[in-house]
Amino acid sequence: MDLNAYTQSLDDILSKNSVYDVPRFQREYSWEVEEIEELWTDMLGAIELDGDAYKCSEYFIGTLVLQGSADSSEMQIVDGQQRLMTISIFLSAIAQKFRALNEDGFFRSIYHNYIEGTDDRGKPFFKVNNDSHNPFFKKAILYKDHEKVDPKNKAERRLKKAYDTVYSKLGDELALSLGTRFQDHEHHVKALSAVKNQITKFLKVIYIIVKDEEEAYTIFETLNARGINLGSVDLIKNTVFRDMQKTHPVDHAKEVWSNISLKLDRSNTGTDLDEYVRHWWRSRHSYVSADNLYKEFKKAKKNSILTSETFLEDISFDVDDYLRIISPKSESFRQRLDREIFRSLIAFQVFNVTQHRSLILSLFYAARRKLITKKELAGVISFLENFNFKYVAICKKRSSGIESTYSSFARKVFLCKTKSEVRSEISDLKSQMRAKAPSQSEFEQSFSRLRYTKNYVKDKRLIQYIFNKMEWEENNGGELVPENLSLEHIMSQSGSKSSACGSIGNLLPLSEELNGRAGIKSFRDKLNVYKESRFWLVQRFCEQYSADVEWDEFEIGDRASDLANLAFEKYWVL
């Protein structure tokens, strides 16, 4: 492999009339504010105020690997695209700040030297080009007359945040960072010029050029082989795009990959492609950590278990099922059994667990193949809900300890060929989960510690889920609108100093209207309000307690134990 490496400044690179393209296999923009802040701080730390002048010092920012030739008008960025895009953001923000100060000469100098170039026909182009973020990066960040373009995904929101962060630092904060203050317009201009010079003249990179595309893919993989800069999914993407190089009439690999990423981003769950692929892999191939996923992918590819094409096809096919798991929408679950599945999927969100996803993804796949009925599917997902409620939500046990079990059964279900095989695997799964489940005494002790007050809301959503589930079961699956369920403190919070006030034993589900009417009334008067409620738990309470009861911490403790027993033996049965 023929490599040419030497040190260059950003001026040497960006002042050339060349396009630096971010290749299709590269990841999206990933720098967060912390990384922007770190580069900004390091950069300004290399600038010293010497009397009335600013003195800049060289600062090394890493390696820039390009594919092409030294005299080429277009180069592919193999490694260093995050830094080069960030530098372009810095320069664009500085140029716009000069423009805001009516320093059009400085603005034009930066813009035409480092941001925009022109080809032989006089047609303008941006020197750093990333089609994955087109048109946002070009129109909202680089273009001299910024246009209003809404970011369409998480990466573009990062781009916007990066630009806004840098631009906000170019006023009074810049003076503070440089250990001075702007006495007038000229002082501000001089400081901005120093920052521009530090970036263009004194930031240094190791500049490496490789000649062909195959070398570029190899260099990319080698530089990131240990996962120092990139994660496993980025390296898998590199391999997939290297194997699927056909880009005409459309770049199928890029189109499919981008569509998957966009769907996940639009789910607004915080789940990214890395997490999806990891859960998908565990449902099909092996239980693997994030760091080892790429190694397992290469091994599977080498052993002809999959190809880049089948991998991309499969994760594209399954992503809609995965979205139903992580972001269930009521309109997709209209029939009765579907509603049961929907409620269980919502429950996993309340429990804040993700480890079940690989197994449910595999169960959904079995349902598509008609190897499991809708009733059986709803039943096993409900079982997983009940287990996670007891094991994770109430007893606070680490769900990571059972993730390998989920993954193992997910793969077994995936490999099943008949309905009886699936039923057998589900039966074995339930047996293993029951063996891991907490005892009744452990559960009831933890359950009784649930509490909610205006100053302690950590358990509020879980308690609402508990009451909601009980009401739903007692209504034989009838819908109960969650917005109508508020938490009433039987012993009023106002004026009470009892620690038992927040206990689940002191709480009832009530509509907002009845809750407001109950207010801080006496126990006797509250009972009259409660009797108007249609909620089963409230009606049960009114049957259990008479107006002459002295409602105190002992009664609250007894009721908490009663609810815990009811939960364990009736509603969350394994």
From TrEMBL:
<dbReference type="InterPro" id="IPR004919">
    <property type="entry name" value="GmrSD_N"/>
</dbReference>
<dbReference type="Pfam" id="PF07510">
    <property type="entry name" value="GmrSD_C"/>
</dbReference>
<dbReference type="Pfam" id="PF03235">
    <property type="entry name" value="GmrSD_N"/>
</dbReference>
<feature type="domain" description="GmrSD restriction endonucleases C-terminal">
    <location>
        <begin position="449"/>
        <end position="565"/>
    </location>
</feature>
<dbReference type="InterPro" id="IPR011089">
    <property type="entry name" value="GmrSD_C"/>
</dbReference>
<protein>
    <submittedName>
        <fullName>DUF262 domain-containing protein</fullName>
    </submittedName>
</protein>
<feature type="domain" description="GmrSD restriction endonucleases N-terminal">
    <location>
        <begin position="11"/>
        <end position="241"/>
    </location>
</feature>
